[in-house]
Amino acid sequence: MLDVDVTVSDSRFKEHEANTLKQNIIFFCTTPKGSLPQMRGYGLDFTILDEPFSTLRMKATVDIISGVRDYYGVQINDIKVTADENGKTKIKIII
Q1: Is pLDDT above 90 for 10?
Q2: Which of 19, 25, 54, 65 is 20 to 30 A from 71 in CA distance terms?
Q3: For the chain, which residues make up each domain, given as ranges?
Q4: CATH class in words for 2-94
Q5: Number of C-alpha atoms within 13 angstroms, CB side, residue 54?
Q6: Pairing relation of β-strands 89-94 and 78-83?
């Protein structure tokens, strides 16, 4: 459904911190919003997967940027949301 790739290029993070941050951001992007009992606002709104691609790209970008900032306190330097010819959505995030 979603293929998420995260690169941490910020030199403030040690290797283990960068790996943990990458795993957490991937978890955020692959968790349907509302599915965690104590954190209903956490995750990506999966209803956007049925939207036209331009709408999906815009809403996913906003959700991811604001969610990563709110839950992990880091700023995303670049985010690209693409889809292949089979409709699989790919998200590339650079911190």
Answers
A1: no
A2: 54
A3: 2-94
A4: alpha beta
A5: 0
A6: antiparallel
